[in-house]
Amino acid sequence: MKLGNLYNDWLHCIHATKICSPTVSMCLPTHSSSFYRDELQRAFSEQSFGIRSFHITSSNARQAVATVVLLEGQKLIVVLTNQGYSVDLEKSPGVPRSTGTDVVHEAVENLLQSISPLYIQRRQEALLSALGRLS
Fold it and tell me: For labeling, which of 35, 80, 97, 120 is most exposed (least CB within 10 Å)?
């Protein structure tokens, strides 16, 4: 999910149905309960070459959570919200603090690149392979 898409959702919300906080004059985009789940499913499915596995563990209208096993064998809990992708450090032992919940990534590729050297390697191999097929 790109932040530009979220901005467009926010603009749509302003002109359509609004859910506004009485204390904050901000419109929050409304999504179906499957929006974040579907986006997380799509994002990790597209990156399957660079991870061992993933499983969506929960979702609602505001976020989705997945357990991801990296090629290195490390288990992560990844959270997708309207802000982007982040790692739940409390539930992901061994993950450097610089990649945790305070660091939000616009794309799941960026999150994986910040954590997994083997993901970077596999991604480069996949890109080179795709380029080779074009020539």
Answer: 97
Q: Both tokens of residue 5?
A: 């898409």
Task: Say how far residue 58 (Cα) sits from the centre of its chain.
Answer: 14
Q: What is residue 101's predicted lDDT score, i.e. its pLDDT?
A: 56
Among the listed residues 63, 74, 70, 73, the one whose alpha carbon sits nearest the alpha carbon of residue 104: 63
- Do residues 114 and 94 touch, judged by C-beta distance below 8 A? no
The three-point CA angle 44-50-55 to 5° equals: 35
What is the per-residue pLDDT across 11-31, written as a single tens digit (0 to 9) for each? Answer: 444 444 334 444 444 445 556
- The 3-state secondary structure of the chain reads CCHHHHHHHHHHHHHCCCCECCCCCCECCCCCCCHHHHHHHHHHHHCHHHEEEEEEEEECCCCEEEEEEECCCCEEEEEEECCEEEECHHHCCCCCHHHCCCCCECCHHHHHHHHCHHHHHHHHHHHHHHHHHHC
CA distance 74 to 116: 9
Label residue 131 left, alpha or beta by phi (over 0 means left) and psi (-120 to 50 means alpha): alpha
